[in-house]
Each structure stands twice: as C-alpha cells, then as structure tokens.
Amino acid sequence: MAAKSIGFRLTDQMVNVNNTNGKWLATYLNPEIMVGLSSKWMWHVAGVVSSVYQSNLKIEGVTTYLKYRFYANDEVHKHFRMALYGRASLMDHPVVYDEINLEMDNSGLGGGIVATQLLHKIALSASASYVHSMDNLGYKIPAGSGQNALDYTLSSGALLLPRVYSSYNQPNLNIFLELLGQSDLNTGKHFLDLAPALQLILSSRTRVDLSFRTQLAGDMYRFRQSVLGRLEYNIFNVYK
Amino acid sequence: MKTIILILALLFPAFFAGAQITGATLQASGLTCSMCNKATQEALSTLAFVKQITPDLNTNSFLISFKEGVPVDIDALKSKVEASGFSVARLVLTLDFHQQSISDNAHINYEGRIFQFVHVSPQVLDGPRNVVVIDRGFIPTKDFKQNLSTIQMDCYKTGRVSGSCCKVDGKTSSDRVFHVTI
Questions:
Q1: Who's near A161: CB < 8 A, 6+ residues apart?
Q2: Where do runs of H (alpha helix) occur along chain A?
Q3: Which of A100, A228, B103, B181 lies 20 to 30 Å (CA to CA) from residue A109?
Q4: A169 in helix, strand or coil?
Q5: Which residues contact A20 (CB under 8 A, 6 or more apart)?
C-alpha cells in the first residue's frame, strides 16, 4: 500500500454448514481497515462476524495483521519484492474445525514470508507461514486437536483488461488462480485448495473480487467449498 | 558594485548564468496497473511546487509542470514515488539555459543546488533543454551499479559535494550534487 493511504474492505465468504447443529448457508463477514503506514509497513485490522457457529449473525472476534516489506527491486513494469508478515486474532465461539484459520475462525498467532514477482501484466506470488492456535474466548480447543500448522500459498494473476490504457476511469479486469494449503504439525492432517478469482478495479480506486475455493485433497474436518465476494475502496494521501 | 558583478559574471559564467527547472518527465518503476499509477500521481501532486501532472498510464510516466517562482525539490519527487511503494526509473528535467557553456564534469549552480554534467561534449546550452538525472534512486539500481564502474567520482557515489572533485566555491560536503547528462 502507498504510505499515508487508507483502504476499507468488506469480505463476505459463504459456506454450507452441515453438522449436529443443523444445515444452513452461513456467512463470514469481515469489515476491515487497511493503513499504509509507510512504503514498507502496512497494517490491517478486521472484525469477524459470522453465522457459522449459530444460524444468526454474531460478532465473533477481531484479527490484526502487520506486513513489512524488506526487499524491493523495481524496473519498468517489473518488480521483485519480499515481505514478512504477522497476524494475531481473538475469537469467541466453539472450536469445531480442524483447519487453523486466524482470519476467520481461530484465536492465535501466526507469521510468515511472502515473495512476489511482477512481470508486465503477470504477477506470481508465494508465501509460507507458521500458525499457532490458542483457546477461543470462553471455549477451549478440544483435546487431540492440532495447534501448530504450516500454511503455504502459490498464486498467479494476470491483467486481462484493458489491453491499452487510456484513462484512470477504465475498469481493470484481473484473473487469479491460487493454490492454498495447510499441514498440521501435530496431527499430520492437511488440505490443498484451488481458488480461481476475478478482480475488477473501478476508477483506479475501488476493487471488487469474486472467488470460489474448493478442496483438491485433504483429510481435515473443514469447509471444503466456499464462495467469496469482496469490496474494497482506497483513499490515497489521507494524511500529511 | 554593479560593474564588479558584471565583470564576475563574464569571468565565471558557470556560476552566474543560472538555470530554471520548468518541467520534468518522471517514469516510475515496479508497477503496471492504473491504481498504482493513481497512488503515485496523487502523492506527487501533494508537492507544493507541482502545478500540473499529465500521466501516461501505459509507460507509467508523468509529465510534470512546475509553479513559477517556487523552488523545485528534486529529491522530493523521488521521495513521493518511493512513499507510494515504487521507484523512479527515469527523471528528465527541462532546464531553461541562458548561454550556459558546459563540458564534461562542469558544475552549474542552480538556486544553491549543484548540477554536474557527466558524459557530455563541450557545448553552449541556450533556452529550454532536457537533462537526464543519473543519480542513485533516479535510475534502476542495476544501471546505477553499472555507472559506478565508469563514473568513479566520490560525489556520484554519495550524491554530495566531495572535496576531491567538486571544486565549487562556498560549498561544503553536506551540499547535494545532481549528476545529469544530455
């Protein structure tokens, strides 16, 4: 993010709940604020509201994220960047699923490294991180559950439109394909997901994402499919 | 008094002819998309000396015009691009010369700032002319490292006046030197 810029983001992820509590189409809602502290530091804080653990929407918790870009090599239409990131979360609902998800479900801490290569209209990115889950507020992690896992992602994106720019107001269309996985270091359970996504950027300031995520392989008790929609609005040079 | 100044101006034209920066073309690197371009342009437009910016979204370039009478801070142009999260790939400044004679390694004093001409043949510059800044942070890192092998002056490495090559009266080692070529 640019220094002194602020972004507002709302993410809605929908999953099919089907357990002893019942069966319903549930949603995770993440209202998020993103701040460009400097050209190297970026900070996010988000609330988590969901209808996953009960059929009505309830405020579940909060999560915060900090990223530090420690390396950048820029050329015209190209860059290679590396950053370290960390996340801390606090959630307030029963711990039900095997997957450790600090963005939506679990209290805990995590940190990792990400590298991105931009080459003209293609972007490639890879990340690896360690996540540690902790008891949720008022709810302990069930005995026998894993609490330590490795997360890994590999993603590719391409700018499809416009082919030639003529104005800031032209919509930009990006397409993404991401592989996301987790391996639990205690239980040995894992998953590997595929997530194709479309991203529309409007007036060079507003972003709309639509993605679908499906499990390719794995043996964790978790949501194997989900659909995600996201709306983001950025304001540059908010403060001096 | 006026006679003395006139005689000094004739004897030392490099320091009295002066030059005014009227505009610039800046190309940013590390980006492709228009949202990144917009963030960079909005950052540049917060500079008090910038009058107008016309972007070229396909080359990530900005044609910048400056306000008359307001000193142009060249380093601030670079800082704003870097604060946006990107880098400067190329900065071309348009300077308005008045019978300015230059040669390789010649120094020009502009509003207290020094421009050193590099890799130029002896000539007289008159009217608006474009100069390319070749200092660290104004060209891609690999190009700057390549230049260090052929431009071995201390002041090119540091961007500041160095006793061994910059013989400029009244200037100390904290003063900035901008290395430019035509």
A1: A171, A172, A173
A2: none
A3: A228
A4: coil
A5: none
Gyration radius of chain A over CA positions: 18
pLDDT tens-digit readout, B78-114: 999 999 999 999 999 999 888 888 988 888 887 667 8
Task: Tell me whether residues B83 and A73 touch, CB distance under 8 A.
Answer: no
Tokens representing B86 are: 């990107």
| Binding-face residues of A in 192-231 toward B, CB within 8 A | 201, 204-205, 207
Lookup: tokens for A69: 């870009």
- A38, two tokens: 């400097």
Nearest to A180 by CA among A199, A160, A165, A195: A195
Which chain B residues have a beta carbon less than 8 Å from that of A205?
Answer: 35, 38
The answer to whether A184 touches A146, Cβ cutoff 8 Å, is yes
> What pLDDT digit, counting tens, does each position of B110-123 carry?
766 789 999 999 99
In this prediction the ipTM stands at 0.90
Find tokens 């032209």 and name the residue.
Answer: A170
Question: Which of B32, B36, B37, B139 is the mutation pick for testing A, counting most A CBs within 10 A?
Answer: B32
Report pLDDT digits (tens) over B10-46.
555 444 444 579 999 999 999 999 999 999 999 999 9
Query: d(Cα A217, Cα B66) in Å, to the nearest integer?
Result: 59
Amino acid letter at A190? H
Name the burial class of residue B163, with classes exposed (0-12), middle (13-18) and buried (19+) by CB atoms within 10 angstroms of its CB: exposed
The answer for residues whose C-beta is within 8 angstroms of residue B24's C-beta and 6 or more apart is B63, B64, B66, B72, B77, B91, B92, B93, B94
